[in-house]
Amino acid sequence: MQLITSSSQFDSELAKAGKKLVVVDFFAVWCGPCKMLEGPLHELSRKYGKGAIFLQVDVDQSSDLAGRMGVRAMPTIQFFKNSSKVGEVVGPDVGAIESLIKQHYVELDAFSGSGKRLGEVSAANTNPVPHDVSSSNRQFNEKLEENDCLIQIRLMNGENVRELFKADDTIQKVYEFVASKVGKSTNTFRLSTSFPRKMYEGAELQKTLKEENLTPRGQLIAMAK
After folding, report:
1. 31 counts as catalytic
2. pLDDT tens figures, 32-90
3. 100-109 contacts: CB < 8 A, separation 24 or more?
4. Among the options 4, 34, 66, 71, which is catalytic?
5. Which of 22, 24, 31, 220 is the catalytic position?
6. Percent of the chain topping pLDDT 70
7. Any idea what the Cα angle at residue 116 is, between residues 110 and 122, rounded to 5°?
8. pTM for this predicted structure
9. Which domains does the chain have, with CATH numbers?
């Protein structure tokens, strides 16, 4: 999987892809779910590499590109055909990722230049569709109930913790949860999003997770004052 380091490189790869599906993994090195997804994504890239291109973007190194593409939580997997976005999966949901790949994937015939979608069988190739790899990561795919919100918080010591909240819970509730985890008073740290960077202090703490687009999964950073 190729690492993209600039917007110009990203645009160039989309343009060069032609008819191929482009799958882009927006990740962060400190993101626990991103690490969980790494192995299954590499397996998918080997499985579908004939008709799809797999790219990676480190959101901390390429924050401008991540912001431009509307990425607000990691991992975010975006799908492109003919330089246009055709789908997105937020979170380490391997089943949903593979489903979108199958939906848009076209396996190109190296001799004729023509293509066929997964499930179509030609006289020259009667091999079955490869097995589904989603089971290899099933334990990491939290199935959320309606109005549930799974928040991952990066603590000051670099540890990542996850806690289930409700969409109408406030940032203040997350703030108090962090304080209880680290054993600090609530005036020694503050919460922020990773990018675009937004600090939550004062009245901002009364906003709900839904209002801040942190549902159904979101990520926050606890920073020492």
Report:
1. yes
2. 889 889 899 999 999 998 889 999 999 999 999 999 999 988 899 999 999 999 999 99
3. 101/21, 101/23, 101/44, 101/48, 101/52, 102/129, 104/21, 104/79, 105/21, 105/48, 105/51, 105/52, 106/19, 106/20, 106/21, 106/51, 107/50, 107/51, 108/19, 108/20, 108/50, 108/51
4. 34
5. 31
6. 81
7. 80
8. 0.57
9. 2-140 (3.40.30.10), 148-224 (3.10.20.90)
Determine whether 149 is an active site residue: no
Tell me which residue has tokens 């190194």.
61
State the number of CA atoms in the 13 A half-sphere of 71 facing the CB.
29
Q: 176 to each of 89, 144, 172, 181, 209, how far by Cα in Å?
A: 29, 22, 6, 9, 14
Token pair for 144: 């959320």
Q: Within 10 A of 205 (CB to CB), how many other CB atoms are there? A: 17
Q: How many CB atoms lie within 10 A of CB 128?
A: 7
